Amino acid sequence: MELRHLRYFAAVADTCHFGKAAERLHMAQPPLSQAIRRLETELSVDLFTRTTRQVALTAAGEVFRTDVERILKAVDEAVARVGRFASGLEGVLRVGLTGSASYRQLPALARLLKREMPHVMMEVHTEMLTPAQELGLIERRLDVGVLRPPIRQEGITHRPLADERLVVAVPEEHWLAEADTVRVEQLRHEDFIMYGAALGSVVNDAVVRSCLASGFYPHCAYEVTETSAALALVAAGFGVAVLPDSIRSAPREGVACKDIEDALSVPLVLAWRAEDDSPLLRNLLEALERHDVFLEGAA
User: In this protein, which residues make up the domain named HTH lysR-type (predicted)?
Assistant: First the structure.
């Protein structure tokens, strides 16, 4: 039994007329009649009753028709699905993000994908600092990364998404909580909550350079691996955390975020393997371009 024989049967069952079915199938009637006879012989059952004036489904034919319709629908859907996959309109996009980008850029990216590429699923990996994302890209565990340069691994290209000023997160009862803005110098005697030194955090580097420019080295009282943990410790009153502006989009009960007048900024980029020519990545980049997600004038 071949798939075309099922399509022949479905056409005759729909029309109850061999001539009309043959016309729909763009074939002559005699080969169609012969094919249905062979199908009936193979199944050892009559699927149609035939008279000189009428063709009708038998009880067995009605049962067979239900299953054939289901099979043909599944086949057509599989063909359409593999076509969407080959053209990058369906599949799984594995995305890595820094902790702070999870709060602002992840929701925006998810909304854009849902609208522009509705058959693409996201596999999200958050709280990944730049070195971890670079490794994930090189080892093909990630398709794209939302990370902070510099990128040290070869074979990774990127486009800028944002240039974020550093802000300071302080407990709500902190003496700076009511200030309009803060200067780095005012943090000289504070306990800092920072990413672990061994993690290679770009944000840490910017915080240290900002403090050194104001004449002091930050006192790191607690080290964390995740942005959410840093905010939790701030809320608990264990210190302050200097983080990218995107943390303002995070749920942060018990935390006040203040602009820092003289702090450095930290760039955020979308990164991917330079060799990746997949249709899925191409469609993503085109969608981001259409919606002006990349910083203007940066290619």
Answer: 1-58
Q: Is residue 48 within 8 Å of 60, Cβ to Cβ?
A: no
122 residue type, one letter? M
Q: How far apart are CA 209 and CA 91, in angstroms?
A: 42
> What is each CA distance from 165 to 156, 179, 193, 282, 296, in whole angstroms?
25, 17, 18, 30, 18
Does position 52 have pLDDT exceeding 90, yes or no? no
Q: CA 165, CA 8: separation in Å to the nearest integer?
A: 66
Domains of the chain plus CATH, in order, are 3-86 (1.10.10.10), 90-161+267-290 (3.40.190.10), 165-266 (3.40.190.10)
- Does the model's pTM come out above 0.85? no
Q: Residue 92 and residue 280: Cα distance in Å, rounded?
A: 9
Helix runs in the chain, H state only:
3-15, 18-25, 29-43, 59-86, 101-116, 130-138, 202-213, 227-235, 279-290
Tokens 């609208």, residue?
A: 115
Torsion of CA 152, 157, 160, 166, to 10 degrees: -20
**Cα atoms found within 13 Å of the Cα of residue 261, Cβ hemisphere only:** 9
Strands 191-195 and 55-57: unpaired
